[in-house]
Amino acid sequence: MSARTDVVPTPKRPYQKGRWVDLFERVRPLKGLLRLRSFQFWAILPNLFLFYLFILAALWGTPVGSRNIMIVLVWILWWFLLITLLVPLGGRLWCTMCPLPALGEWLQRLRLVTVRFAPKAKGFKNVLFGLNRRWPKALDNIWLQNLLFLTLATFSALLVTRPIVSAFVLGGMIVLALGLALVFRQRVFCRYLCPVSGFLGLYAMTSSLALRSRDWDVCVRCPTKGCMLGSENGWGCPWMVYMGKLDRNNYCGLCMECLKSCPNDNIGLFVRPFGVTETRILHLDEAYKAFIMLVLAAVYSVTLLGPWGTFKDWANVTETGDWRGFLAYATLVWTACLVLFPAVYALFVKVSQWAARWRGRWVLAPVPAAANGAGEPNFRTLFLRWSYPLVPLGLLAWIAFSLPLFFVNGSYIVSVLSDPLGWGWNLFGTAHTPWKPLVPEWVPVLQVIALLFGLAVALRAGESVARELWPDPRQARRALVPMAGLWLAITVGFLWLFTG
Amino acid sequence: MVRNVLLTVLLVGAGGLGGLWWARSAAPPREVVVDIEARRYAYDPPVLRARQGDVLRLRLRSTDVVHGFFLEGYDLDARIVPERPDFEVWRPSVVQWAEAEKRGELPTKTEPSVEASKLEGVRRVREVVLRLDRPGKFRYRCSHTCGFMHPFMQGELIVAPNYPFHVGVGVAIGLTLALLTWRPARPTRRREASS
Amino acid sequence: MRWKDGIREGMALTVLLLIFVGLPWAIRAYENGRVRRLSDGRPVFTLYANATWGTWTTTPLVGWTYFWRKPEPAHIRVPAGQPFVLRITSVDVHHSFGIPQLGIGPYDVEPGRFLELELKVDEPGLYTFMCYTVCGRHHEKMMGTLEVAEGGQ
Questions:
Q1: Where are the domains of chain C?
Q2: What letter would DSSP give residue A205?
Q3: Domain C41-149 sits in CATH 2.170.120.30
Q4: Is the pTM of this model over 0.90?
Q5: CA C38 to each of CA A420, B98, C31, C92, C117: distance values in angstroms, whole numbers, following the listed order
Q6: Residue B9 sits in the same domain as residue B94
Q7: What is the total count of domains within chain B?
């Protein structure tokens, strides 16, 4: 039994004509708009204004969260729009307009809208200010993002209720991005450190929007590789992506520079059906991201949206002073995410491997070599492949979690727009709009629909994984049974948490 | 393909119906007195389980600061002041206590009990009687800012039959079984998956 | 850099600077204007009620000061017969404001919202205002003083 190497099929044409919608064909002005040099600047600007307002409000406005625009607009409105609309439909579209790395990137480029080009330079053709170092190879993964997101999640009760904490975190991210931009080249903060970027990248795998090269043969023959190295019309990809090989949404930040720097007009923006099943998790850090996000969806649902005061007291440590409880809480969360759930998952993958090998009458025999000569996939391959269905499952669990945040507390948005700092203003006359949940008794029904949809997509993705791993359909079916059982159990668990 | 779709619909439907059957209950309605204590940041008891048709006599108390009690689905809101044996209650929830205070329409006398369905305006009572005619899961939340974790202060009132949960579980099982019986449209030669 | 690029960069930079300088200035200017309109020539006092220390204070308790600034209990001075405005807000939980000796209140003070009272006291003296809603451990000690001096001072 030889172990098959972890090979992802590499098609020549990354997109599927006929099944994908070419947005540049359907919406003619879009291409011109995205190719404007100032496109990203104008996309970022309103958010930069808003985040500036949020930080000012957090520092000098009322400490009462529900009356401060920092809490209401970030943790109710922005979070809800991000996870329910922007991510499933647009993937990493938030990264296009995110203001956090903007100052650092503009300083690194010493330009706001135009390009600095050095035609004689070897390799990277754009000129960047700063130390221009390469990010260390050992950190060329998302482990740092996994840990940073876990850290933020441990303190989430403090983060989403105190405006000043949010200000320090967002301000800290801006400063960190700025510092990193002056030491390293390109968007190192976004690619390797930003906690939001970590889960955006993971969940973008399933989403509809995809920026891809139209024809990889053209890329192979391209003499300049402008998309990666830059040209006089565009900066080299700040996400360090080479379009000639890009077939997943994970690390493309949709900044649209490659549209401008590609000399062959070979980049297209496509829309495909949500719930992509053909993409794959390739590395352990990504698999762990899927585990962490799924477990955290449950943790948040128990701590923040659950009826049990003990967890809230543990998480709300600076007010209760219960540091022992907080330590217990943090230990529980970190072990569940990093040890317990991955161990359970590994167990199910092992059982699935045995199930596939089962030849009847309790005989576990090695699988005969498949038609193409490859042997049985090794455990690591199985583990990584089977972790992909957790992506749609997790995304819809987060959507189900976020629905009550908006439906119950969305009315705060109306009042806070008239009085952003809680200083007694009434800009639009809505400052005294009372708190009124929006049909809260129907939220459980919406949550059920979201969770069932997530299960359906996960099952379809699981079927795709099984058929790819096990050419024999009966083997694939047997391998699928334990995994589908686990996804069903996870869904029932969330159903119980939200509606049971 | 048709076989797959038909089987899926059948299994999902069966799951849903199974859920409906699981949810049913035939016990007679009861009348229960419930003492709910509010503190930062939870209610005690955090979860109330009851059946459709039951009558709850709610007595609300606060042990530290002013809390609220907004019951989803019944549009009932209350204001619980600490160290008092009574509380203010009103329906619909949008009749704000603050507006009533401004107009000087706050109640001055404490009534022993009031029925939630017959409530209008703000009343001060020792107990509010709730007739559970709607099944489902309803959360009761704090409606008066009581501190940092106020938006997450909530309890649950689960009134059987809780159809969304049971039907949801049934459909989930149906979906899983449907996938496991799904037959691919063509033999597994179509392996050139491209993303 | 070509001159056309220079214009584009200049425009973009101008917009950025307008935001960085303009937003705090606009907030400050609007607030000053609003308080001026509210005061209408009368002195305005802002009281922050907080439960952590159990005080009514005139020290502004805002996002970055709430956690570490220890507020001084309020002591307000007005001349007798002078109309004045009291703006009262809470920075954490519901409090209740009242001046029992003058028969004012109690009025609910909602967190993040302002209660605006237009008052005039003719009798000179020392009046205490208190909190009428249990707001925490320090509720009983939550008091401030209103000193009404002889007219003309």
A1: 1-39, 41-149
A2: G
A3: no
A4: yes
A5: 19, 22, 10, 25, 11
A6: no
A7: 2
Which range marks the domain in which residue B110 is found? 31-160
Residue extents of the structural domains in chain A? 21-271, 328-499
Same domain? B9 vs B58: no
What residue of C is the nearest CA neighbor of B99?
A: C108
Tell me if the bond preceding B92 is cis, omega within 30° of 0.
yes
CB < 8 Å to C1, chain A: 114
Q: Which residue's structure tokens are 């004689």? A: A120
Contacts of C16 in chain A (CB under 8 A): 45, 48, 112
pLDDT in tens, A380-398: 999 999 999 999 999 999 9
Q: How far is B98 from chain C (nearest CA, A)?
A: 8
Domain contains B78: yes
Q: Do C112 and A112 touch (CB under 8 A)?
A: no
Q: Which residue of C has its CA nearest to B145?
A: C93
Task: Read off φ and ψ for residue A462, nearest 5 degrees.
Answer: -65, -40
One-letter identity of residue B5: V
* A437 contact B CB<8A: yes
Task: Indicate whether B75 and B119 sit together in one domain.
Answer: yes
Does residue B75 fall inside a structural domain? yes
Chains in contact with chain A (at least 3 beta-carbon pairs closer than 8 A): B, C
Is residue B19 a contact partner of residue B168, using CB atoms and an 8 Å limit?
yes
Are B66 and C133 a contacting pair at CB < 8 A? yes
* Residue B195 forms part of a structural domain: no
Q: Residues C39-62: what's their mean pLDDT?
A: 92
Which tens digits make up the pLDDT trace of B38-84?
Answer: 999 999 999 999 999 999 999 999 999 999 999 999 989 999 999 89
Q: Does B41 touch chain A (CB under 8 A)?
A: yes
